[in-house]
Amino acid sequence: MNLLENIREGLRSIISNRLRTILTSLIIAIGITSLVGILTAIDGIQSSVDNSFAGLGANTFDIQGPQMYRRFGGRSEKRVPPIDYHQAMTFKRRFQQGENIAVYAAVTGAAQIKYASKKTNPNVQLIGIDDNYLGIKALKLQSGRNFSATDLEKSLNVTIIGNEIVTTLFDRNQNPLNKEINILGGKYKVVGVLEKKGGFSGGGDDRQVLVPLENARAMAANRTLTFDITGSVPNMGDAETAVDEARGLMRQIRHDPLGKPDTFEIKRADELAKDFENITSYLRIGGFGIGFITLLGAAIALMNIMLVSVTERTREIGIRKSLGATPKRIREQFLIEAIVICIIGGIGGILLGIGIGNLISTVVSRGNGSFVVPWFWMAIGILVCVSVGLFSGIYPAFKASRLDPIEALRYE
Description:
Number of strands: 14
Low-confidence stretches: 68-78
Oligomer: single chain
Helix content: 40-55%
Number of domains: 2
């Protein structure tokens, strides 16, 4: 009996026991679905984050004020003052490496915007910006225009609003441009509407209102605003040099003592992406571990089913041995059956895993991520299926091949 005939015999055995094959394949399919699904979801979320950072590029960096108390020699010192307006504008004027520098300040994250009888929830981000902010932050206008030099110099009451603000305050067919909305008690004319961004940011970019920087300072009144800076360089190769120059310049402006830590933070866009990629690598390890445990349970269940199959077919094995089948051929038949069942379940599990994984990533990224086909994880899934089939079938196959043909023929 050759190998081809053995394969046919194994397939005939699988077809003749359809219910057992389906139930066993479902066990494997669930394990593969958990493995491929989790890893696909992680890849989809990673893709969404990559798309979010792609707009900023690797040649941008952010300079932010201190985020916590600093400690020197084990003693807590007073909070380091934030970057103020004059420091930010001095940096923008003196920095030589970058073509574009954007200075901006968050006035509040709990503003309520009104128009006529309608109003938003008190969760709108109110930000004061300059004319470079939209370009550097990769915010595109759906309609209208950016702030002009006149708007900024004369502190005109003009505003650019996010897409969610438009849908909340205006009717579907109503054009928001040139309409006056109420921002913290003042009337501002809408001159621009941002494109819907959504995505991994959680919709925050769609729920923001932008005003000229000087207007933001006036709105803050007696409160101290923290001014942040985002810079970009024309070539990615110059990014490291630009960051070093920015650090040196800001230390001069902030009068940081020699040998003391910076009183500000510089973050590059590609560093944020790398940090998230490191996190997702740990998530992949965890997801693979969960999938492996599920598959281990499926392998044990398959082994049990194969042992039952050996017991049920003891007489058949005796007949085949009496006709000249060698122990090797008997082992091959049972291993082939186990592997085929695993592959059938694996293909179903891969398809389910891709669908469920992309659904999860779409929900988490709010539709911003692209559909991911994880070819690598699909190949791993098939390889795992074959491995599970071998692991589950090898002991039952050896048990079947060692049966005494005479005793097997007597088995009832």
